[in-house]
Amino acid sequence: MNQRPKPSFYKQYAKPQSQTKQQNTPQDAVKRGDVKNSSVKMSHEKNSTVKTGSRLNLRAQLIRLLSQVQQGRSLSEIQEKYFELVDEKDRGLMHELSFGVLRHWYALKSISLPMLNKPLSDPQLEVAIYLGLYQLFYTRIADHAAISETVEAVKQLGFESASGVINAILRRATREREQLYIELEQAHGLPSWLYKRLNKDWAEQLPELAQSLRQPAPLFLRVNHRQIGRDAYLKQLQLAGIEASASHISEVSIRLEQSVSIPALPSYDKGWFSVQDEHAQLCVSLLPNLNSKVVVDACAAPGGKTAHLLEKYRPQQLIALDNVESRLQRVHDNLNRLQLASSEHAEQVDVVCADATTWQISESSDATQADCIIIDAPCTAIGVLRRHPDIRLLRQSTDIAQTTALQAEILENMWQQLKVGGQMLYITCSILKAENEVQMQNFFAQHADAKHVEIQADWGIAQQYGRQLLPQQGSGDGFYYCLIEKVA
């Protein structure tokens, strides 16, 4: 058996280092509209007519793509490869269908399982069913097109003998659409381990939270106020015919009310804005005045916080730290586009490739300790599940122990780099208490020189330590913030 790939946070932040006899035919099942009573078993043996590469239709490419995610591959790692195999005009649909199936994966699974008498013997057939059902229930694609294209994809992938059963399931779904849709909407749509964890952490909020996690996330911009004010940029968007509104949480945030091409937005190349979730933008507003201070942005890539700090303050030195060189290139790229890498800022910023669990400030600065340290800690990223729906399949309950241990290592090392009187801001994009409030409870229990600084705000949910934001429909992602001061 192949070993499951390491979770993505590990890669980014860890230390460098046969057919059976058929009693009924698929066609019989189609006529009865009863796939469950069909004893047809799907064979994983493919026939000799399997198509490859660009010869496959869009649905076949999607099945292959989603099967890779099912096996533990990150969608962001592989989607470009598959996008290149389809016509440019179909890439928008490919994006919609891949994200949609992943968002509703477990809900689609819950309605399809009762239709099957026996488990499917190849994961690609499971994916084909979910893809077909998603098109029937969540898109405007005509039923006949969704079914025929999906069944054809199954044939192209070499599962000719299974195509009849796939066809039967999808046709049955159209006949039972009303009841199945009710069941879909009532499903929590989460893997069982995550549902149990969220029920323990957020029982009161869980029904709304589970449904929110199945919705697309809004798109937010952070206006670079060194270039233009928010009201002025809103007018630029209005002139361009783009619907947008000001955020009530962040003073530099704009919510886009329609789908757009980001590079096509006004003055993208001039650095007038960045794409950043509105809850992520709260980071800089929670910090003290950092002018002429020594600041460390630990786990900095892709550079959103680093850039936001430079847009608001003129620190004596800002050290942007991450342990993956390729990710740090994105920090450079973002600073260049935002015009924050000019000579005016260049002496203030040091982009450093190093491990946050062992790095010492003396390696990158004349200062012996920092005035302020921001730790956007590696986590399970459950709070950004709407933007990265593959997390629904990629994360496992065992990942939590790995992330919390890594977080604790980073906290311990970075605490030693902070001067007395300095402040540390601990952040995650998680909604699991083990990575947030419980992590902070353990930290304060072990550090008598740590003082909790209460965040006075009307957003989020106050915890014993810090504040928690949950993903909400029409609003930002799940984030946790805790501000800590070092005392003598």
From TrEMBL:
Pfam families: Methyltr_RsmB-F (PF01189), NusB (PF01029), RsmF-B_ferredox (PF22458). Keywords: Cytoplasm, Methyltransferase, RNA-binding, rRNA processing, S-adenosyl-L-methionine, Transferase. The active site is at C429. Residues 15-27 have a biased composition (Polar residues). One of its GO terms (cellular component) is cytoplasm. It is an enzyme of class 2 (transferase). It is found in: Cytoplasm. Its EC number is 2.1.1.176. One of its GO terms (molecular function) is rRNA methyltransferase activity. It comes from the Bacteria. Residues 1-51 are annotated as: Disordered. It catalyses: cytidine(967) in 16S rRNA + S-adenosyl-L-methionine = 5-methylcytidine(967) in 16S rRNA + S-adenosyl-L-homocysteine + H(+). Residues 209-487 form the SAM-dependent MTase RsmB/NOP-type domain. GO terms for biological process: regulation of DNA-templated transcription. InterPro entries: MeTrfase_RsmB-F_NOP2_cat, MeTrfase_RsmB-F_NOP2_dom, NusB-like_sf, NusB_RsmB_TIM44, RCMT, rRNA_ssu_MeTfrase_B, RsmB-like_ferredoxin, SAM-dependent_MTases_sf. S-adenosyl-L-methionine binds at C299, A300, A301, P302, G303, G304, K305, D322, D355, D376. Belongs to the class I-like SAM-binding methyltransferase superfamily. RsmB/NOP family. Specifically methylates the cytosine at position 967 (m5C967) of 16S rRNA. PANTHER family: NOL1_NOP2_SUN FAMILY PROTEIN _ ANTITERMINATION NUSB DOMAIN-CONTAINING PROTEIN, NOP2 YEAST -RELATED NOL1/NOP2/FMU SUN DOMAIN-CONTAINING. NCBIfam families: PRK10901.1, rsmB. This is 16S rRNA (cytosine(967)-C(5))-methyltransferase. The lineage of its organism: Bacteria, Pseudomonadati, Pseudomonadota, Gammaproteobacteria, Moraxellales.
